[in-house]
């Protein structure tokens, strides 16, 4: 399977001019990429600038509401995300969980609604520093996985992407070692196999996210055998982002 690299720009950059510079920098660097795939998740205000603008780079939304439409001020529906031309949507990013109080139940509604409408949800999961300290990583992941995928039928499960993003590694410069990432990869694959069977589990991409850069990406996509990476800060630098994609282009 070709590596999948997802860029999460979060609430950056400040202007459309800057956003275009980053996006088209990445799009032009992509000409030399053979197999790796990329998805860029710009902030909602800039999404429409990039629809249909780069063949090889897909677009995703950073968030969504699970309801079809209605009185939800400030929210973006999945129908709107799909209509604008996105194929992917993040669900359960740790910043949404921590800063905006998203629960596993809300995240599950987003995953189900995304699948229902034909979008690919990227379910983000990961333990905090305290949970890691208390050796709760696998317990936390099991709960987030079970609750996040609650009600996801076998026939829809292969459309889901998982992202293991240890909270302590996001935006901190601290990266998870390849052996821990591999252990998590194996753990999640096993849990998926128990739930959906081997064939479907093998077709579900599991990404790593948390301070990924061009000089550490191989430890995840090669050593830990993850299906790709989710990149925050480094995706705002087109040269660095392309270096990450190039390293994972095998
Ligand atoms: C993220 O936002 O999901 C992320 C992994 O950020 P960073 O790469 O900056 O740690």
Write structural notes for this entry.
This protein is α/β, with parallel strands linked by helices and 250 residues long. It has one domain (4-247): Alpha-Beta Barrel (TIM Barrel). It contains twelve helices and eight strands. The longest helix has 19 residues, at 178-196. The chain starts with a strand and ends with a helix. The model has no long low-confidence stretch (mean pLDDT 97). Bound molecules: phosphoenolpyruvate.
Topology:
Blueprint: E1 4-8, H1 16-29, E2 37-41, H2 44-47, E3 57-61, H3 78-84, E4 88-91, H4 94-99, H5 104-117, E5 120-125, H6 129-133, H7 137-148, H8 154-157, E6 161-164, H9 178-196, H10 198-203, E7 206-209, H11 217-223, E8 228-231, H12 238-247
Helix pairs in contact: 1-12, 7-9
The structure holds phosphoenolpyruvate (PEP).
Phosphoenolpyruvate binds next to strand 8.
What's this model, at a glance?
By secondary structure, this protein is an alpha/beta fold. The chain has helices at 16-29, 44-47, 78-84, 94-99, 104-117, 129-133, 137-148, 154-157, 178-196, 198-203, 217-223, 238-247; strands at 4-8, 37-41, 57-61, 88-91, 120-125, 161-164, 206-209, 228-231.
Strand content: 5-15%
**Unreliable segments of 5+ consecutive residues:** none
Average pLDDT level:
97
Distance between the termini: 9 Å
* Tally of structural domains: 1
The secondary-structure class comes to alpha/beta
- The backbone outline, from C-alpha atoms, is globular
Assembly category: single chain
Q: How many strands in all?
A: 8
Helix content: 40-55%
CATH superfamily: Aldolase class I
Largest sheet: 8 strands, parallel, barrel
Q: What is the N-to-C order of secondary-structure elements (H for helix, E for strand)? A: EHEHEHEHHEHHHEHHEHEH
Strands ordered across the widest β-sheet: 1-2-3-4-5-6-7-8
Ions, cofactors and other ligands present here are: phosphoenolpyruvate
CATH class: Alpha Beta
How many H/I helical runs? 12
Radius of gyration: 17 Å
> What is the fold named in CATH at topology level?
TIM Barrel
């Amino acid at each position: 399977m070709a590596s999948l690299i997802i860029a999460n720009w979060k609430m950056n950059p400040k202007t459309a001019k800057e956003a275009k510079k980053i996006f088209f920098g990445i799009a032009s660097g992509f000409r030399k990429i053979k197999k790796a795939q990329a998805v860029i998740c710009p902030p909602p205000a800039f999404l429409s600038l990039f629809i249909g603008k780069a063949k090889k780079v897909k677009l995703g939304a950073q968030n969504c509401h699970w309801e079809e439409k209605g009185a939800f001020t400030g929210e973006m529906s999945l129908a709107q995300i799909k209509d604008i031309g996105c194929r992917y949507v993040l669900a359960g990013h740790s910043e949404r969980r921590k800063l905006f109080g998203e629960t596993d139940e809300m995240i599950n509604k987003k995953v189900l609604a995304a699948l229902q409408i034909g979008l690919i949800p990227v379910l983000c999961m990961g333990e905090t520093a305290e949970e890691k300290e208390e050796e709760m990583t696998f317990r936390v992941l099991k709960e987030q996985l079970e609750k996040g995928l609650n009600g996801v039928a076998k026939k829809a499960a292969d459309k889901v992407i998982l992202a293991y993003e240890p909270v302590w590694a996001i935006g901190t410069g601290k990266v998870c070692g390849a052996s821990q990432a591999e252990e998590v990869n194996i753990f999640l694959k096993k849990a998926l196999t128990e739930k959906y069977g081997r064939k479907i589990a093998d077709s579900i991409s599991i990404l790593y996210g948390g301070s990924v850069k061009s000089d550490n990406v191989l430890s995840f996509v090669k050593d830990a055998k993850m299906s790709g990476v989710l990149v925050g800060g480094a995706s705002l630098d087109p040269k660095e982002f392309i270096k990450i994609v190039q390293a994972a282009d095998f």
